[in-house]
Design a protein that fits this description.
Structural class: alpha+beta
Strand order of the largest sheet: 6-3-10
Number of domains: 2
Mean pLDDT: 90
Shape: elongated
Strand content: 15-25%
Radius of gyration: 22 Å
Number of helices: 5
Length: 169
C-alpha cells in the first residue's frame, strides 16, 4: 500500500480523524503524520488537490483541514475554492476540537466537566464562607473568554475560581 498523500510505500499507520465517527482514520505514512502534527512543508502537500476528491470521507476531511492550514499558498487556496463536500462531511471537517487553554496550577489542561481540587483556602466574596484547601469541585465549566478562570459549585454556591488555585484530579 502507498500513502494517499505522498505516495510513499512502506509501513502505514492508521491516523485518527477527530470530530467524526468513532474509529474513523486514514492509513498514512509516519512522515505525513509528523507533518500533520508539526509544521507542514507546503510543497509536500500539493497532492491534496487530488485527495480532496477521493471517496473516503476521512481522507477528504483530513485533506480539507490540511488545505486550510496551508491557505497562505496560492495552490491551496485554489484547491479550497474548487473543493466540494456533502453536508455531513463538511460538518465533520468543521468539527475540529479546540484544545483548551485553561491550565491548572501545575500546567495540566482543564476541560469542561473535569473534577479539580483547591490547592489553597479561598475566601468566597459575597457568600460569607471560605472554600477550604482540598475541596473537590466536580463538573467544572470553563469561562470561555478567560483561560484563567473556571466555574464550579462549592457548598451549593456557583463560584468563579482562578485556575492558579486548582489542580486537576
Amino acid at each position: 500500500m502507498t500513502c494517499p498523500f505522498c505516495a510513499a510505500s512502506g509501513p502505514l499507520v492508521t491516523y485518527p480523524v477527530s470530530g467524526g465517527p468513532d474509529g474513523a482514520g486514514v492509513e498514512i505514512c509516519q512522515t505525513c503524520i509528523d507533518q500533520i502534527e508539526g509544521e507542514p512543508e507546503p510543497n509536500r502537500w500539493r497532492g491534496l488537490s487530488g485527495t480532496i476528491w477521493e471517496e473516503d470521507p476521512a481522507l477528504k476531511v483530513l485533506s480539507l483541514r490540511m488545505l486550510r492550514r496551508l491557505g497562505a499558498e496560492g495552490w491551496a487556496r485554489d484547491a479550497l475554492d474548487q473543493a466540494w463536500l456533502d453536508e455531513e462531511t463538511q460538518a465533520w471537517a468543521d468539527n475540529v476540537p479546540q484544545e483548551s487553554r485553561h491550565r491548572d496550577a501545575h500546567g495540566a489542561t482543564l476541560n469542561a466537566g473535569d473534577t479539580v481540587v483547591l490547592v489553597k483556602d479561598l475566601p468566597v466574596k459575597g457568600a460569607g464562607f471560605t472554600a477550604k484547601r482540598g475541596t473537590a469541585v466536580r463538573g467544572i465549566a470553563l469561562v470561555p473568554d478567560n483561560p484563567g478562570q473556571i466555574e464550579g459549585r462549592v457548598e451549593g454556591q456557583r463560584i468563579v475560581i482562578l485556575t492558579e488555585f486548582v489542580k486537576r484530579k
